[in-house]
Amino acid sequence: MNGWRTDECTAPAALGVYLRRRAQEGDKTIVGYLPGLYPDAGSFARNLSRLVAHGIRVVEIGVSASAPPMEGDTISVALKEVAAVVPDRLELLRRSTHAAFQAGAFPIVMAFAETLKEIGLERFVSEAAQAGAAAVLIPDVDQSGRFRLSTACAAAGIETVAFLGAEHDSQHGESDTTGKATPFLGPEAFAYLQTADMPTGGRFTPSAELKRRIEELRTCSTSAADIVPIAVGFGLQTPNDVRAAHALGADIAIVGTAMVKAAAEGEERFQAYIETLVGAVSASGGARRV
């Protein structure tokens, strides 16, 4: 069933379980990104409801950073605008994550290592879990930090997202109990492959190399039960980009900059963009509701 599903089930479930089920049933997923409380608290909450209503239930919530690495101009400016209104990052984390949870989304709190340093890793994870986060994504954390983050998240009952930069080689990761190289530490909701070595907001170019990386990453799972869904992000902006990412073998397409631009242009524009994004991709594979 290579289609789209708009889930109307509200029973709580782990994000990883939700994504694995979709992948196993052939349903492709879009993950959205919005800076917390952007462009304002009311619009943010209403836009989250729009995303969920259109089947985009997994949403990255950006927590402001003074000089965010990897982020292009659009997201950097948006994060600075939010920080000018809500300078307390813990308040931003709590309010935006809870708003996403209340909207019926699976919130992924997305921050950078400097935020963990400022707040403290254990407190950051604890606050995220209490606010309703399903997972945490820290793309620039080092390897020792990844272990600490994974341990703290497991203790708090939430998951992490394994961010694998454009330079990552899955054959040279950590070793699992069988001695096989793996980039996964667990419990991880999905693996996030950076499409190319560029900041967000660039242009996505499908390539044989990206397809190879996706296929290679799949070999890191030790069994069917351990399969980690694979996402690609950085540069995906149009329905064609999303379709191309899925055609390369990705289970999940992450859309950030284009979604932020649409939110900045008003709620009607955001609604129209989401309808175009989901509608075009649904038409290519068929949608079903449960």
If you had to describe this structure to a student in words, what would you say it looks like?
The protein is an alpha/beta fold and 290 residues long. The protein has a single domain (25-169, 180-280), classed as Aldolase class I (TIM Barrel, Alpha-Beta Barrel), CATH 3.20.20. 44% of the residues lie in helices and 18% in strands. It has eleven helices and twelve strands. Helix 6 (121-131) packs parallel to helix 7 and helix 10 packs antiparallel against helix 11.
Portion of residues in helices? Answer: 40-55%
| CATH architecture assignment name | Alpha-Beta Barrel
Name given to the CATH homologous superfamily? Aldolase class I
Portion in beta strands: 15-25%
Task: Note the main attributes of this structure.
290 residues; alpha/beta; TIM Barrel; 8-stranded parallel β-barrel; two-stranded parallel ribbon; disordered N terminus; disordered C terminus
Report a brief summary of the structure:
It contains 11 helices and 12 strands. The model is unreliable at 1-13, 170-181 and 286-290 (pLDDT under 50). It is of the alpha/beta class and 290 residues long.
Blueprint of the fold:
Elements lengths: L3 E3 L8 H10 L4 E7 L5 H13 L4 E5 L10 H13 L3 H14 L3 E5 L2 H7 L1 H11 L3 E3 L5 H14 L2 E6 L9 E2 L5 E2 L5 E7 L13 H11 L11 E4 L5 H9 L4 E4 L1 H8 L2 H19 L1 E3 L1
Parallel strand pairs: 1-12, 2-3, 2-11, 3-4, 4-5, 5-6, 6-9, 9-10, 10-11
Antiparallel strand pairs: 7-8
Helix pairs in contact: 2-11, 4-6, 6-7, 9-11, 10-11
